[in-house]
TrEMBL record:
GO molecular function: pyridoxal phosphate binding; transaminase activity
PROSITE patterns, sorted: AA_TRANSFER_CLASS_1 (PS00105)
Pfam family, one: Aminotran_1_2
Segments forming domain Aminotransferase class I/classII large: 37-380
UniProt keyword list: Aminotransferase, Transferase
Cofactor(s) the protein requires to work: pyridoxal 5'-phosphate
EC nos: 2.6.1.-
Protein name as it appears in the record: Aminotransferase
Origin: domain of life: Bacteria
Length: 395
């Protein structure tokens, strides 16, 4: 029937499906208001009003055949120019429209980039903790994911030993900044060190090693933290962006890849990305979304609600004795399991109707992820449950 590799994938995705099912069963039993579901990274702040207004304007003002038609596989030229101009204005970069490829969200962009770079057997490095789908995306093209374990002291990129990990088969690294699940923002200093390692390694292996920078949370930062812009630090980078989180549009599937002119093999790379977008079956990013994005390019979600959740959750759980990484970006809190096996801790949490994700699925056992893109009210209501959970471990 279905392929062996897909059988394995279906079996492997059962943890998250099981969590979802358990949440539903719990709600049926104890009432939805008594279930504290921290499992999903679905934005809880509505899209800015300007987004809906832009959709209306596109439908009212633009030619219908044009708006709903095919276009260049890389996207509408004027939309790509608008993305490049916005990046250049905000980050002092020099992108041109032909270095932008509109994509079907970050997931579409990552798959397009990997299809372009990876031959079967090629290696792609991921730094733990990482978004669990990366390994699936790499395997989609016969690539081999190579996991660098987390630096659990700082949760910055673990660069120790990276040079030894890179070999002739290494094609790319995937970096996610700000990070899901840790909430950490990789510093400019970390990126400078990474560039020095890559420059040396590229000479040794004799080909470019591309950093695929996955940045769906770029706009979601707190405490005045800024995310260093990847192309200002890393020469051979492909920047992947998505409006799923920054405009609260995850179901609409819109994002882009941005490639600086300075990368090795720029022309070949852009041609490859454009063909990959087509033959993966995306053909092009959704046209109505592209037209809307042109009108909303500098809009961003109001992060105040996430910030309020973040402060309250971090402070309350830390006070109870839990060890948490202070999140600077995204909308996740990464918490150390009080016992070695975090799956047992997650099961204990369920007894108090708390749903957390075990971080083994992010390549970082011993930790759990709490998505705080939920209502403030739910966080407050969950406090007695967390207190009871804390008492199990810290007497
Ligand atoms: N990358 C990371 C780190 C994510 O957290 C997500 C979604 O949660 C994605 C990529 C996929 O984003 P998109 O909905 O834009 O495909």
């Amino acid at each position: 029937m279905i392929s062996k590799s897909m059988e394995e994938l279906v079996a492997g995705s059962s943890v998250i499906r099981a969590l979802f099912e358990e949440g539903k069963q719990m709600a049926a039993k104890v009432g939805v208001e008594n279930v504290y579901d921290y499992s999903l990274g679905n934005p809880s702040v509505p899209a800015p009003a300007a987004v809906d207004e832009a959709f209306r304007q596109v439908l009212d003002e633009e030619d219908s055949l044009y708006v709903h038609g095919y276009m260049n596989n890389a996207g509408y030229e004027d939309v790509r120019e608008a993305v490049a101009d916005s990046l250049n204005r905000r980050f002092g970069t020099t992108f041109s429209g032909d270095g932008i490829l509109m994509t079907v969200g970050a997931a579409g962009g990552l798959n397009t980039a990997l299809r372009t770079l990876v031959d079967p057997g090629d290696e792609v490095i991921c730094f733990a903790p990482f978004f669990g789908e990366y390994t699936n995306y790499i395997k989609n093209f016969g690539g081999v994911p190579v996991v660098v374990p987390a630096d659990t002291r700082t949760f910055q990129l673990n660069l120790e030993g990276l040079d030894d990990t890179i070999n002739e088969r290494t094609k790319a690294l995937i970096i996610n900044n700000p990070n899901n699940p840790s909430g950490v923002v990789y510093s400019a200093d970390t990126l400078r060190q990474l560039q020095a390692i890559l420059e040396k390694a590229e000479k040794r292996v004799g080909h470019p090693i591309y950093v695929i920078s996955d940045e769906p949370y770029r706009e979601l930062v707190y405490d005045g933290v800024t995310v260093p812009f990847m192309s200002l630090y890393i020469k051979n980078c492909i920047i992947g962006y998505s409006f799923s989180k920054s405009l609260s549009l995850p179901g609409e599937r819109i994002g882009y890849l941005a490639v600086p002119k300075e990368v090795d093999g720029y022309g070949e790379l852009m041609d490859g990305l454009t063909v990959a977008e087509r033959i993966l079956g995306f053909v092009n990013a959704p046209s109505l979304q592209q037209r809307m994005i042109k009108r909303c390019i500098d809009e961003a979600t109001d992060v105040a609600a996430y910030d309020k959740n973040r402060r309250f959750l971090y402070e309350s759980l830390t006070e109870m004795g839990f060890e948490c990484i202070r999140p600077e970006g995204a909308f996740y809190l990464f918490m150390k399991s009080p016992i070695e096996d975090e799956k047992v801790f997650v099961a204990e949490g369920k007894k108090h109707n708390i749903l957390m994700v075990p971080a083994t699925s992010f390549g970082c056992p011993g930790y759990v992820r709490l998505a705080y893109c939920v209502s403030y009210d739910m966080i407050q209501r969950s406090m007695p449950a967390f207190k009871a959970l804390a008492e199990t471990y810290f007497k």
